[in-house]
Structure formats: structure tokens, C-alpha cells
Specification:
There is one protein chain. By secondary structure, the chain is an all-alpha fold. The chain has one domain. It is 67% helix and 0% strand. It contains five helices and no strands. The longest helix has 14 residues. The radius of gyration is 12 Å and the shape is globular. The two termini are 12 Å apart. 31% of the residues are buried. The model has no long low-confidence stretch (mean pLDDT 91).
């Protein structure tokens, strides 16, 4: 996440998380939509949670086969967990 750009081999889900971590939610959302698998759905869910659209986030968590995190889980902690899960 500290690199100047996402690694070329990262794939759309991890590239989306990189973009989000660097302040570009819209591009992150576009990239997450490019990955139609579970990884993209998980990132998509996180992005909608961050946006505050919890109903939409719940849909994407279900599509990813994931349980939404507890309210006490920060967005940064969730992003880190997703990164670890995808690597």
C-alpha cells in the first residue's frame, strides 16, 4: 500500500484497495466492479460500508460469502484484513 502505484500483477480487487487507501474511492469502486468474483465482491462490500450505504454493503458481503464486520471494526482494520485475505 505504500508503493507509488499498485503493483501491475495485483489484480482489480487489490488495486481497488490501493486506490481507496490513496483517497480515490470512485476509481476503487470502478476497479472492484471489474472483478466479478468473490474478491471483487468483498472489496465492493467494504467500499459501500465506507460510503455509508450499509444495505448495499450487506448485499455485496453476502455475494462474497462474507459476514459483515462488527461495527467496532474500523475501516482501516477491515481494509487490512481484506488485503491479508487476498494475498
Amino acid at each position: 500500500m505504500s508503493a507509488a502505484a499498485p503493483p501491475p500483477a495485483a489484480g482489480p480487487a487489490l488495486a481497488a484497495l490501493w486506490q481507496d487507501a490513496h483517497g480515490d474511492w470512485a476509481l476503487a469502486h470502478t476497479l472492484a466492479q471489474e472483478d466479478e468474483g468473490a474478491a471483487g465482491s468483498w472489496v465492493h462490500a467494504y467500499l459501500h460500508r465506507k460510503e455509508g450505504d450499509l444495505a448495499n454493503a450487506r448485499y455485496w458481503y453476502a455475494k462474497a460469502g462474507r459476514t459483515p464486520p462488527a461495527k467496532s471494526v474500523t475501516l482501516d482494520a477491515e481494509r487490512e484484513a481484506i488485503i491479508r485475505g487476498l494475498l
